[in-house]
Design goal:
The protein is mainly alpha-helical and about 250 residues long. It has a single domain, classed as Rhomboid-like (Rhomboid-like fold, Up-down Bundle). The chain is about 60% helix and about 0% strand. It has a two-stranded antiparallel ribbon. Helix 1 runs antiparallel to helix 4, helix 1 crosses helix 5 and helix 8 runs antiparallel to helix 9.
């Protein structure tokens, strides 16, 4: 008996995703050039101290477009996450909503980083998070992780071929990513796990909260309208074309 297996393919990025990826690369090159020229590029990196003591709130956005100047792989990995999962989510959400949510997930990662930074000023936590208050945080990882989690939650029961791991479901992907991030957060790695978790939490809230609520409201509206049309037409079912679409792209 043959079993159907999902095939791994390289998705074609939409205009929004392609524009975002190109922007990230251009900003990284500009960051490297700026550092070599002695410009204060670090003012764009997210630092809890700078935000709370100097009012550098713009860093909540600018840090997303900056990456480790000593590790180009930081940018490369984020681009891979965005490419493989962002292409499908742009098709599902549409380009405008995709860009807005990517920004929301990234900013949410920055907000959680600031909250943890503020908590680190409390002596007991400060010992567990040495230097967190002044350490810079940068990268689009929060947005990328949010997109990954949103993908896994949206297509929870669909199988996908993930490189060497074989066919896994979206739900399994979410569980795996969360476990990896928890281990990373407990390690001594300098990766900003707070930004990752902030983006992941925002994605969960959107997909399971706001998006789910809108889906329930739409279904309720469909049932009510269908009932009204049946009454008007003497019990006959209304043509499908007269019912509101269940496609999320048509909700706006």
């Amino acid at each position: 008996m043959r079993t159907a297996t999902a095939q791994f393919n390289f998705p074609r990025p939409g205009k929004a995703l392609l524009g975002l990826m190109i922007t990230l690369v251009v900003c990284y090159v500009g960051e490297l050039v700026g550092l070599r020229a002695g410009l204060p590029v670090d003012a764009l990196w997210l630092s809890p101290q700078a935000v709370f003591e100097q009012g550098a709130v713009w860093q909540l956005v600018t840090y997303l477009f900056q990456h480790s100047p000593t590790a180009p792989g930081h940018l490369f990995m984020n681009l891979l996450w965005l490419y493989f999962f962002g292409a499908r989510m742009e098709q599902h959400w549409g380009p405008k909503r995709f860009l807005i949510l990517a920004l929301v997930f990234g900013v949410a990662g920055g907000v959680l980083t600031l909250l943890v930074g503020l908590a680190s000023t409390w002596a007991p936590l400060g010992e567990l998070l040495p230097g967190f208050w002044v350490r810079p945080h940068l990268g689009v990882s929060g947005a990328a992780m949010g997109i990954v989690i949103a993908y896994g939650l949206t297509f929870a029961h669909q199988q996908m071929q993930l490189l060497l791991l074989g066919a896994i479901s979206g739900r399994t992907l979410v569980i795996g990513v969360v476990i990896i991030e928890l281990i990373s957060a407990l390690s001594l790695d300098q990766v900003s796990s707070t930004a990752h978790f902030g983006g992941m939490i925002a994605a969960f809230v959107y997909v399971r909260g706001f998006s789910g609520l809108r889906r329930v409201r739409l279904e309720t509206k469909r049932k009510r309208l269908e009932h009204e049309l049946q009454v008007i037409q003497g019990g006959k079912s209304a043509p499908p074309s007269k019912l509101p679409s269940s496609n999320p792209k048509d909700w706006n």
